[in-house]
Amino acid sequence: MESTVSDSKALVTFEILEGDHGRIGRATLNAPKSLNSLSLEMIDLLEEQLAAWQTDNTIQAVWLDANGDKAFCAGGDIVRLYQSMVDTSQGERNRYAEAFFGREYRLDHRLHTFGKPLICWGNGIIMGGGLGLLAGASHKVLTETARIAMPEITIGLFPDVGGSYFLSRMPGKVGLFLGLTGANINVSDGLAIGLGDVAIAHERKTAVMTALNELNWNDDARHHDGQVSALLAGFSLTAGDLPESPVSQHRGEIDRLCDSDDPSYVVEAITGLDSEDRWLSKAAATLAKGCPQTAALVWENWHRGADMTLADVFRMEWRVAVQCTLHGDFQEGVRALLIDKDGQPHFKHRSVAEITPAYLAEFYQLPGVPDPLADL
Predict the structure, then answer these.
(1) Torsions phi, psi of 29, nearest 5?
(2) What reaction gets catalysed by this protein (predicted)?
(3) Pick from 124, 123, 131, 121: which is nearest to 152 by CA?
(4) In angstroms, rounded to a whole number, what is the distance separating the alpha carbons of residues 261 and 361?
(5) Most buried in the list 68, 150, 191, 318, measured by CB within 10 Å?
């Protein structure tokens, strides 16, 4: 298996796997010390290379993975976003946030619409921005250590990177529950709700890549997705090798708790849950300590996203994300969790019920600048 490798010190490395029957582009997130959290530089590197591979007819497929065994990607560079909020005076634009979210969502949209097999190796921690990358892949591989979450409820943001699209398309009210609670889910959960296509042991990674590189690609590119799916299925773990799925186990309870047209009622039902189950109790506790503004945005985005196209979802999320950087709670949530680490955020509202429709509507307005995703 011959290959050509880019600078190994780069934040993202690129490699061409030269097979006997075709070529595969490999992109590897290379910031293991930060759990491969996405910086704007990493986003730009990925966007440029993936755009080139997308139109290169000599590239049959793309493989996306990460350096290190702890995490595929733990999210976005929240600390840098925090600094941009600190540096932005009231009434001013947050140009860094506008650029970061705009370019991140453009990259995510490219993954979803890539048009070639794009295999993402989801090992370890997969959160926030990392889940945006995984969700966009045509072939989502989860390993036995996959730990997935959209934990924005703790910091005053919201499940973005297309979360308004894929959370609203999960079975029943599962996506709403996960968005509200930031609950961690495992490999079995991921398979059950569409965030994973196949489970493969992490130790088989090299073997899978070798087999993929030796694949005799069909002359008709329309068959390539099926060829990759069949190959990956040959390495899949059996149900007996996988942990129980808390989401599947508690599906009825989740749907019952979220069965209301009133977000305040749903939040009260979840936070008032008296359960001996550790997974449910932790989810309820996280929401109870979380940001009411985020809960309101999760509710609104989940309902809006269900009827929107993918491109429209990313355009909506860009507006909401930039507005979050201008409305205070996101900055305060990051401060309490990651900067001062006092665990005592002072959010603007004490409950979802306090958030007025007029206040919520502000998040869906363009922040006084052109939409950078208008051309998607």
Answers:
(1) -65, 135
(2) 3-hydroxy-2-methylpropanoyl-CoA + H2O = 3-hydroxy-2-methylpropanoate + CoA + H(+)
(3) 131
(4) 18
(5) 150
